[in-house]
């Protein structure tokens, strides 16, 4: 027993010294003349491989810069870590953050807007899709480079449409069409329609009508002070959900992406809203024909288009100028049509560079998956405005939670107006607290 | 297996002098490594948390200005915090007693001297090897209303579909059931150890005296096991208060905040909403609650254990 | 024991064993499913091929992660056993000023919510230069109130006569600890060891925060890396990963279980 302890203590000591040497070695080894760009991301699963491929492609193309992508957990986990290391030598040069973190990143003062490099170089921004870059552009300054971008689409079961006597080639476009189709589709074990309990979809359903989420032009012309999503547009969305749920043609699937997809794949629901990025897997996995359509609008309302979702790439501020330049080089590489075509095909996210869509590889794929084209068209047809640019809110993650709670309360029979007003009042409070803190800084 | 006697050996006090005759420095030396690490990695963060709970903080977590008790008073008057407190309390109530009784039943079963019992013991303790994240994903599928096995079983018995995690009335209970399953392995293992520690001669004499097995369970097993039971109760309660992973994966605190236990609410405030002041205040309140409950449990528990 | 009772007991054992083990069996089944099979709600995969397992290995450096987890968990376990047994020994066999208060302080550490410690500890480890290294992953966990508590309860059952005898024969206190206390408490140490190992094995957030490099990353990060949100996760591959990750832990429990029984039947605890 005594020996055992001695041996294990000895082992530990050896191990400790061994790995402290290890750590020192890795730090030195990057000194081979190349500039190392650390790229923190939250792309898991298949996507991580695609990110790695993009980085490998860049590293092979030139020999000045090495880009190293590092997975840092979910967006929330990554942002917590970034926040802690920003300004120290452990900070990455490129950081991927979700769209709702945009305002937070701008306010943090720890990032370098990419606009500086665009101006320095006279880089032609017009090759980027305006409807995507708009989201990350504040006061005419491009803050970050859009990376993985997606929008919501309507997904439906074509086979079920046929069975119910509906035209499988024509997706419902208005609320009354949705309701009617859902009524016909609801029978036995099947329910017509569902929306994931996720704030993003509500934001989109409001924007598509041209409605704003918060005041001050969606927070774009000044810090948002009040939530306005409880207006006419929001009410229409909530009334649709509430009415359909009462009729039994709307199915509550909770907050998990996989739960709603499971409900669709197993034939429990016939129509639902999904992210454009998830379409291809849905088509591949479904044992039936899958159709895609635009986001529905209330009757008599002109379609304004969709807000971009997903994430963008940010550059850290307090790092070497040389590293920033290297990071910018990588960002430029990422947006070339060839890379974007690969990215679009392999990840399912949009191409930031619309030129990519004209490439034969993309065209071929679109023939196989016409659903992909629907998503791109919906984005292209978007009319730029404050509504479709998306809201800029410091307390966005919290706002989303409140909206989700409001959605959930609908299923408990709370009136749409009441649910919306309550959520809006709570968000007003958080906004006020956040603005007060910013003011006292 | 550990024998967890809360009550000191009756003859021990008389010998105490002998035992403790060495200089006090040596005692400190043994405790020092643990103590140092505790100071650096637990007390220091906790003190910082207490400090931050009295400040308004910016989104980066830096204190801006002194807030006095405001973080606390805002919390105690907000309905969402009271909902959280209620959810936490109910969650502990659902998981601890049932979990411990279930594990005790399994331990009693597995304490029989039978062929192949080792296999069953491994099966019963196997959930200990499952990480919370992995188990939660499995339970997510089990509870899925459209494809999950839970509804299939209900249908098999002619019952209607349930919405488990989506209905505010059943969500907390559903998460509690999953949690009980996750905890059983460990509780079972400790309780089995406690059972095996009981002197078999006691049972032998009870058998000779011809008492019923229920009687010997009540008069021998339970009292002899009480220190272990006490230990398991304390630890399960503390763990239950800190359950986080399963809630994050299964419900994210919803629907309508029905599973938003305090630990999850702290997580949301600290890591998603960047409201560090409020998160710190909640952490302090949670710490105090668990601390007080544990002290009460120690007081009551030790008395119970003494009186048998 | 009558035959009837035996059959009844076996039935009960099998039934409860089935219920307890079912979720793991379910995960095992999912680990062989391809594409949409999981989401369509199937219970039994169409065919049992190893593609998902191969995929799991290809997708993340799982073998590397497994080795890292093994190293990290073993070191944490040894560190905890050492520090906990030392502290517990002090709490039982020595007397010093403020001992009871110190014990209460130790116990109170169990109640500190982990969220409160995450960020400050990250900064501490960063300033110590332990980021991305094994010390950063392991040392903060060496001290553990739960283990100290458990071992204290065990040490208290050691007959005082043993200690007196050792004093008479002039053995130093440390030697008494090494040669008497530890061997006697073997079974408790093994139980605690299993517990420590498994807890360390299942850590996720801390390893994620303090590491940047697959050279030191652990399996739970690997599992998270396989799951996605916006895009459908390949649950077959994730569950294949889960099965590979719990295999070592199940094995440990099985072996530990055997060792424990041996120890018990030999009466080592008495």
UniProtKB/TrEMBL annotation, chain A:
Biological classification of the source: Bacteria, Bacillati, Bacillota, Bacilli, Bacillales
PANTHER family: ARABINOSE-BINDING PROTEIN-RELATED, SN-GLYCEROL-3-PHOSPHATE-BINDING PERIPLASMIC PROTEIN UGPB
Major localization listed first in the record, in broad terms: other
The entry's keywords: Periplasm, Signal, Transport
Residues making up the signal peptide according to the UniProt record: 1-23
Protein name: ABC transporter substrate-binding protein
Keyword match Transport: yes
InterPro entries xrefs: Bact_solute-bd_prot1, SBP, SBP_1_CS
Organism, as annotated: Cytobacillus stercorigallinarum
Compartments (UniProt record): Cell envelope
UniProt-listed PROSITE patterns: PROKAR_LIPOPROTEIN, SBP_BACTERIAL_1
Similarity-based family: Belongs to the bacterial solute-binding protein 1 family.
Automatic annotation (TrEMBL), chain B:
Superkingdom in the source lineage: Bacteria
Transmembrane stretches, start-end: 27-47, 87-110, 122-142, 171-195, 216-238, 279-298
Similarity comment: Belongs to the binding-protein-dependent transport system permease family.
Bilayer topology term: Multi-pass membrane protein
Keywords: Cell membrane, Membrane, Transmembrane, Transmembrane helix, Transport
The protein, known as: Sugar ABC transporter permease
Keyword Ribonucleoprotein assigned: no
PROSITE patterns, A to Z: ABC_TM1
CDD domains linked: TM_PBP2 (cd06261)
Subcellular location: Cell membrane
Domain ABC transmembrane type-1: 85-297
InterPro entries named among the record's database cross-references: ABC_transporter_permease, MetI-like, MetI-like_sf
Automatic annotation (TrEMBL), chain C:
Membrane topology recorded in Swiss-Prot or TrEMBL: Multi-pass membrane protein
Keyword Transmembrane: yes
Subcellular localization(s) per the UniProt record: Cell membrane
Residue ranges annotated for the ABC transmembrane type-1 domain, each copy included: 66-256
Superkingdom as given in the UniProt entry: Bacteria
The keyword Plastid is assigned to this record: no
Entry keyword set: Cell membrane, Membrane, Transmembrane, Transmembrane helix, Transport
Stated family: Belongs to the binding-protein-dependent transport system permease family.
Protein name: Carbohydrate ABC transporter permease
């Amino acid at each position: 027993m005594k020996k055992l302890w001695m041996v294990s203590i000895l082992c530990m000591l050896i191990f400790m010294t061994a790995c402290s040497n290890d750590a020192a070695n890795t730090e030195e080894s990057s000194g081979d003349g190349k500039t190392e760009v650390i790229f923190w991301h939250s792309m898991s699963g298949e996507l991580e491989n695609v990110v790695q491929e993009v980085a490998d492609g860049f590293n092979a193309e030139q020999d000045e810069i090495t880009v190293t992508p590092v997975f840092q957990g979910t967006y929330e986990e990554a942002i917590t870590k970034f926040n802690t290391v920003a300004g120290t030598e452990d900070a990455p040069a490129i950081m991927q953050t979700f769209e709702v973190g945009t305002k937070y990143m701008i306010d943090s003062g720890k990032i370098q807007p990419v606009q500086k490099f665009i101006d320095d170089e006279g880089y032609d921004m017009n090759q980027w899709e305006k409807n995507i870059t708009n989201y990350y552009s504040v006061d005419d300054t491009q803050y970050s480079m859009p990376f993985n971008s997606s929008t919501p689409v309507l997904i439906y079961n074509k086979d079920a449409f046929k069975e119910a006597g509906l035209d499988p080639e024509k997706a419902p476009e208005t609320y009354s069409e949705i309701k009617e189709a859902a009524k016909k589709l609801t029978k036995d074990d099947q329910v017509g329609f569902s929306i994931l309990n996720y704030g993003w979809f509500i934001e989109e359903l409001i924007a598509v009508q041209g409605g704003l989420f918060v005041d001050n032009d969606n927070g774009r012309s000044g810090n948002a002070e009040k939530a306005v999503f409880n207006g006419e547009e929001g009410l229409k969305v909530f009334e649709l959900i509430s009415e359909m749920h009462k009729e039994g043609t709307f199915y509550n699937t909770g907050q998990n992406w996989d739960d709603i997809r499971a409900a669709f794949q197993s034939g429990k629901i016939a129509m639902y809203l999904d992210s454009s990025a998830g379409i291809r897997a849905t088509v591949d996995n479904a044992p039936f024909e899958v159709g895609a359509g635009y986001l529905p609008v209330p009757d008599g309302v002109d379609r304004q288009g969709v807000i971009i979702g997903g994430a963008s790439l940010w550059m850290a501020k307090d790092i070497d100028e040389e590293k920033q330049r290297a990071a910018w080089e990588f960002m430029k590489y990422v947006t070339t049509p060839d890379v974007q075509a690969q990215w679009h095909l392999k990840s399912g996210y949009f191409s930031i560079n619309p030129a990519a869509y004209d490439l034969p590889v993309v065209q071929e794929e679109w023939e196989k998956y016409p659903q992909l084209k629907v998503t791109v068209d919906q984005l292209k047809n978007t009319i730029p405005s404050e509504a479709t640019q998306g809201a800029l809110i410091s307390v966005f993650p919290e706002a989303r939670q409140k909206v989700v709670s409001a959605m959930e309360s609908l299923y408990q029979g709370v009136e749409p107006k009441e649910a919306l007003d309550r959520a809006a009042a709570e968000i007003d409070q958080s906004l006020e607290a956040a603005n007060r803190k910013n003011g006292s800084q | 297996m550990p024998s967890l006697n809360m009550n000191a050996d009756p003859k021990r006090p008389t010998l105490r002098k002998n035992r403790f005759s060495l200089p006090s420095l040596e005692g400190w030396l043994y405790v020092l490594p643990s103590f140092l690490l505790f100071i650096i990695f637990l007390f220091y963060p906790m003190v910082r948390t207490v400090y931050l709970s009295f400040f308004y903080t910016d989104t980066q977590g830096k204190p801006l200005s002194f807030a006095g008790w405001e973080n606390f008073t805002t919390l105690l008057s907000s309905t969402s915090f009271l909902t959280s407190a209620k959810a936490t309390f109910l969650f502990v109530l659902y998981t601890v007693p049932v979990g411990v009784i279930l594990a005790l039943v399994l331990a009693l079963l597995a304490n029989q001297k039978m062929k192949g019992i080792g296999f069953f013991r491994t099966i019963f303790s196997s959930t200990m090897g499952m990480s919370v994240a992995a188990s939660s994903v499995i339970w997510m599928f089990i509870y899925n209303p459209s494809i999950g096995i839970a509804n299939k079983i209900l249908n098999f018995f002619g019952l209607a579909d349930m919405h488990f995690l989506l209905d505010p009335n059943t969500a907390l209970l559903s998460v509690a059931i999953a949690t009980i399953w996750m905890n059983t392995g460990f509780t079972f293992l400790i309780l089995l150890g406690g059972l095996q520690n009981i002197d078999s001669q006691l049972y032998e004499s009870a058998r000779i005296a011809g008492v019923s097995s229920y009687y010997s369970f009540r008069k021998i097993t339970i009292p002899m096991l009480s220190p272990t039971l006490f230990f398991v109760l304390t630890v399960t309660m503390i763990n239950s208060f800190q359950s986080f992973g399963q809630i994050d994966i299964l419900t994210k605190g919803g629907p309508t905040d029905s599973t938003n236990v305090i630990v999850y609410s702290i997580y949301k405030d600290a890591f998603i909403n960047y409201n560090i002041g409020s998160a710190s205040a909640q952490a302090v309140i949670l710490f105090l609650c668990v601390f007080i409950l544990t002290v009460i449990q120690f007081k009551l528990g030790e008395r119970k254990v003494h009186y048998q | 024991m009558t035959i009837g009772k035996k059959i009844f007991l076996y039935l009960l054992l099998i039934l409860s064993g089935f219920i307890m083990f079912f979720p793991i069996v379910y995960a095992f089944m999912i680990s062989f499913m391809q594409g949409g099979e999981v989401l369509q709600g199937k219970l039994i995969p169409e065919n049992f091929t190893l593609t998902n397992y191969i995929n799991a290995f290809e997708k993340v450096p799982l073998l590397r992660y497994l080795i890292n987890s093994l190293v990290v968990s073993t070191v944490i376990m040894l560190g905890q056993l050492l520090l906990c047994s030392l502290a517990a020994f002090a709490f039982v066999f020595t007397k010093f000023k403020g001992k009871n208060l110190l014990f209460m302080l130790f116990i109170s550490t169990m109640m500190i919510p982990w969220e409160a410690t995450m960020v400050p500890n990250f900064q501490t480890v960063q300033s110590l230069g332990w980021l991305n290294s094994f010390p950063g992953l392991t040392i903060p966990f060496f001290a553990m109130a739960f283990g100290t508590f458990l071992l204290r309860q065990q040490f208290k059952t050691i007959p005082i006569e043993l200690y007196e005898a050792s004093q008479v024969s002039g053995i130093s206190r440390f030697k008494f600890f090494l040669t008497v206390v530890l061997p006697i408490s073997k079974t408790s140490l093994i139980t605690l060891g299993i517990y420590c190992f498994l807890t360390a094995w299942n850590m996720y957030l801390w390893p994620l925060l303090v590491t940047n490099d697959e050279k030191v990353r652990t399996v739970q990060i690997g599992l998270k890396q396989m799951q996605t949100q916006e895009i459908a996760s390949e649950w077959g591959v994730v569950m294949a990963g889960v099965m590979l990750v719990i295999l070592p832990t199940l094995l440990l429990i099985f072996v530990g279980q055997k060792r424990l029984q041996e120890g018990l039947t030999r009466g080592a605890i008495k």
